[in-house]
Design brief:
The protein has 5 helices and 12 strands. By secondary structure, it is of the alpha/beta class. A 7-stranded mixed sheet has the order 3-2-1-6-9-11-12. It has a 3-stranded mixed sheet with strand order 8-7-10, covered by helices on one side. Strand 1, helix 4 and strand 2 form a beta-alpha-beta unit. The longest helix has 16 residues. The termini are far apart.
């Protein structure tokens, strides 16, 4: 007699594929409307409102939009750090100085990323951030995040931990991307909160 779960949960690859497929069906208007709502929700969070430095990223394609949030933070005088992908998949950082300070970079056969054009501040610059926005594909009720799959942000989280840095860890997602369960590893560090167009959910 088998005691296996008759409805096995999807593995990371399947979950990521399904969610990215759903994202690709969104219209430009859907993405723009969600981005404005995400910015408003995030800016109202106390940890974002009092932040002096925020490490973020530039959304690409149908990802939950970040540019409206980046511009609003910069208008408030917040220092916004953006990543630049290194050959070993680690991240360097540069300062956001408006949309004109970004350049599109294609790394190998991957999608194009928007990266800062200015001075490189080194991989440890992220440890100075009060808030870190992590790109994600899904998050579950424990705060376990499913990332893009490159491992770059696992390195960022490990670097923060080694430095004893405790920024607020936030992930921006569409409402349907808060799921029942993300397959996790023992070393996964949960995020503090997920921001979706309809609200904020905190985990710790």
């Amino acid at each position: 007699m088998s005691h296996e779960d008759p409805t096995p949960r999807p593995d990371k690859r399947t979950l990521r594929r399904d969610i990215l497929t759903a994202r690709n069906e969104l219209t430009a208007a859907d993405v723009r409307e969600a981005a404005e709502a995400l910015a408003a929700r995030a800016l109202a969070m106390p940890e974002v409102a009092r932040a002096h430095a925020v490490a973020a990223y530039v959304s690409v394609g149908a990802e939950p939009g970040t540019l409206a949030l980046l511009d609003a933070l910069r208008a408030r005088g917040v220092r916004v750090l953006l990543p630049a992908l290194l050959p070993d998949n680690d991240l360097d950082w540069g300062e956001y100085a408006g949309e004109s300070s970004l350049t599109r970079v294609r790394h190998g056969g991957r999608m194009e990323l928007c990266e800062p054009t200015g001075e490189r501040l080194g991989p440890d610059a992220v440890t100075e951030a009060d808030v870190v926005l992590l790109p994600g594909v899904a998050v579950d009720g424990r705060g376990t995040r499913l990332g893009r799959g490159g491992g770059s942000y696992d390195r960022v989280l490990a670097r923060l931990e080694r430095a004893g840095a405790r920024p607020a860890l936030l992930v921006l997602l569409y409402d349907a991307e808060v799921v029942e369960r993300v397959p996790g590893e023992p070393h996964d560090l949960p995020v503090d909160a997920v921001v979706t167009p309809s609200g904020v959910r905190r985990f710790r």
